[in-house]
Structures are given as C-alpha cells and as structure tokens.
C-alpha cells in the first residue's frame, strides 16, 4: 500500500519571488506586517538624523575645524539608508542601522581632541575593516565569547550613563563649578529658559517612552522643538554668548526659509585613512582604533542577539539565521560610516519596535531604508532643533541603555569591581575608552587574586594587557621618543 505525498500547506507557500527571497511567509509574516514594522522602526530611529549631527557638530577638532550640521544630517540619513537596505538584502533580518551613539560620542568628545575630523573618520574606517576581518574569520565570535557577560553588559550601561551625562551638560542642567566640581544649573537651580525647555521635553519624552508610545522619542523631539520655536518667537531668547548667558546653546530655534532642499553630501569621502598615525604616533592611534573596535564590537553583537530572540529567530544558544553575514555587514557599517563622515553605523535596538509590530524579515529593512532616503531631502528642518531639546533624547537613550544593568549579578564583588569601574569611569573621565580599560583591568585583577584566575580566558588577558599599555601610553611614547 502506498501513501500519497503530503500536499504543501498553502499558508506556508511563498507568494512570489519577493516573498521567497525574504522568506516572509516562511517566517510567519506578511507584506503588511513587514511594511508596518519597517515604518515603525524608522519612526523610532528617525531621531538619529537630528541627534548624530548635534553630537558630531558640537566639538571642534585639533585644528579648530567643525563639521557642518546640515551636511552631517544628510550623510547620516544616506548612510543609515544604505546600511539598513544592505543588511536587509544580505542578512535578511529586520534590524535597522544608523550611526551608533556610543561611537559618535567617543569621536566627538575624545578622539578629535587629538586628531582632525578626516583623520578620526579614517580611524573609523580602519576599525570597520578590522571588524570585517574578525567576523569573516570567526575570531569575532571567539573574542566575544571570551569576555564575561557582566563586562559586556557593563560597557552598554557605562555608555548609557556617559551619554546621559553629556545630555545634562549640553542642556545646562549640569554645569562646571569649583566646589563641588559639578553643580545643578546656575547657582543650584534651573535658571534659563532653554534649560527649562530641556526639563519639559525630558519629562514628556520619559512619559511617552514609559507608556510605550511608538516613536515616543521622536514625538518628544518634535514637541520640544515646537515649544522652543514658539518661545523664541515670543521672547527672542537668542544665542548663548558672553552677553547672553541664558541663550540657546548650539542653534536658535527659528523656522528655516525653506523646508525641502537637495541633500548636501560634501562630507562623503572626506577621510584621511592614516593621518592620525603620523599626527599622534602609531601606538596612540592603534589604541584609539582598539577602543573603537571594542565599543563597536560588543554592543552590536549583544543587540543583534537580543533582537533575534525578540523576533523568535534565535535558538537556545543565541544563534540566528545568517549570523556570519550579519556580523560582516555590521563591520561594513563602520567602513561606510567613516567614508561618509557620519560615524560608524551599527544595528539599532529601536528595531525592536518594528519587530513588535510584526517585522520578521529584511523586507522591513528595505522599507526603513527608503524612508531614510526620503528624510535626506528635509534636512533644513533639523536645523531648528536646539541642543537643549536634543539633549533630552540623549538622556532618555542613556536611561534605556542603563536598563541592561538588571542582567548583572552584583552579589560577587570580584565581578562587581570591574563592572563598577566600567560604569563609573566613563562619565567621570568623559571617556568611553577609559571606562572599558579600567573595567577590564579591574575584572582581571579582582578575579585573578580571588582564586579565579583559571576562569579568565587567555584572550581576556591579552586584551587587558593592551589596555595597560593604553593607560601608560604617555610614558611609553616618551621612552620610545
């Protein structure tokens, strides 16, 4: 007796070439869900078109040069579009890409104090090439596995606290003082209109995020900007200066003469690949690259694993479809981001909002990427957003990143010591590199002298030795010189 072959379930059969390519039906999704998820991911990520230029244009490099705000907004949108679409087509996963907040803060507040902006972007490109090689050879996964989970999480938490601190400072909510070193506002109180706008925007955005309103950060930015425009139109607060201490910090919130314009992509290709090595020396430049690699390295892998689990695409080990391709493309994001001067691009945790709306495939990424391309033509709008409003988004994103601390076991001080140093040193020294290095050294020292040396991976010993050299690079360079 023969049994008739089982008929395929029509509900799981792909509906056309596009469905088959992205595996939409196979993953239990639909075109409607993918489009909806792609739009939601864009809405939750769109603030980066404003926030990345705010961060990168807020400081001058070692030669006194400053990046143009509108040009940065254009390349931020362009790079996010390219990388999001590329990741969707190759990795076929619903993870949006844009300029990473940890990397851009490190560039703006640490790296360009020593090198020029083109040289800094050259270091970003080198960082990306290293990540691509590590991913392609499998070494990235090996190194990631060698670093204890507590330290991986601590890096994210520390960057979150650092970003929040930058937001408070940019808003004038925290100011430098003689004793204590930092203080609240002016004379211990909120004393300027721009800082008050920051507080109101922060509270509104916090409430929206707490209520899980889709696009809460973007709504907060838009609402705060509208309020700032109204206040400026009525009271003419003006720009901050020697004769106007209570003015707006970076940009005065006034309506531009035109809302739509062709994107200015002049920053594309403004890269000096090896200039930093000649300016500050090979050792110092390598240490900066080393820090960029680590900052890029751990946050991206953790984020992708978490998103894959949320989408139901990861197995019990955290592996997900096309893992190797995903890691390689994430490295390419740094290369492309450096080449466009928009900073290293990486996967965004906000993609979880789109996944929550049903996104399961790379088709959602194509939708998100196309929307980023459209956003490039509205860059004049971003010039009206004052620093104080954008600072509120920084604080919210910092808080979201710090929430990861709940996954750290704080009962063992030999582990807590390294975690604490990582989280505390970043904002206190205004340096992500210092925080990561202090945490690694503290972890290895505390664990090794607590009888747990055998639990430390040989790779972690090597990385820690590199950070010891990083902290001693001044005397070492003097000796070499």
From TrEMBL:
**What is the similarity comment for this entry?**
Belongs to the nucleobase:cation symporter-2 (NCS2) (TC 2.A.40) family. Azg-like subfamily.
- Matching Pfam families, A to Z? Xan_ur_permease
UniProt keyword Transport, yes or no:
yes
- Please state where this protein is localized: Endomembrane system
Q: Which InterPro entries match?
A: Azg-like, NCS2
Its taxonomic placement starts with:
Bacteria, Bacillati, Actinomycetota, Actinomycetes, Micrococcales
Broad class of the protein's primary localization: membrane
Q: Mind telling me which residue stretches traverse the membrane in this protein?
A: 35-56, 68-90, 97-115, 121-139, 151-178, 190-210, 217-238, 273-294, 363-383, 389-408, 415-446, 458-476
Record key words, sorted? Membrane, Transmembrane, Transmembrane helix, Transport
Please give the name of this protein.
Answer: NCS2 family permease
Indicate how the chain sits in the lipid bilayer. Answer: Multi-pass membrane protein
**Keyword Transmembrane belongs to the record:** yes
